[in-house]
Amino acid sequence: MLVKEELVARQVVAELPPQALQSTTAVTSEPGVEAPLSAVLLPEGGGQHLKLRVKVPWGKLSDFVRGVIMPLRSDGAKLDVEVSVEARSESGGIKSATLEHNVKETLRQIGAQILEEFYD
């Protein structure tokens, strides 16, 4: 059975031409555990377009920005970043005040576009 990160990586790999692929490892959501994945690495002077869909562990978000986003920006890439947040709370739930006064207000202030919203 494939873990979710492997399924996401395979979907990304399937969208790219064969010359854009190399083998590497990626850190899973469990600290210190690595799983072999196919990763997207464009050859030197290669592709003009990269679409990458990844699941990043919460504690590694700053590493993702530093190691993925910043190098792409340094190469002059124009980035569109779509963030998917799934929050669960079993003790007391997520307060509506938190959603309105913190989450949505921050999104408004930074000019983020809400593409989808769902409350359960």
Describe the structure.
- The protein is of the alpha+beta class and 120 residues long.
- The protein has a domain at 4-74.
- The chain contains 3 helices and 2 strands.
- It has helices at 4-14, 61-74, 96-109; strands at 21-27, 34-40.
- The longest helix has 14 residues, at 61-74.
- Residues 1-30 and 33-39 have low confidence and may be disordered.
Low-confidence stretches: 1-30, 33-39
Distance between the termini: 29 Å
String of helices and strands: HEEHH
**Total count of helical runs of at least 4 residues:** 3
Structure class: alpha+beta
Shape: elongated
Q: Strand share of the residues?
A: 5-15%
Largest sheet: 2 strands, antiparallel
Strand order of the largest sheet: 1-2
Which radius of gyration do the C-alpha atoms yield? 17 Å
Question: Care to count the β-strands?
Answer: 2
Q: Determine the fraction of residues in helical runs and give it as a percent range.
A: 25-40%
* Arithmetic mean pLDDT: 75
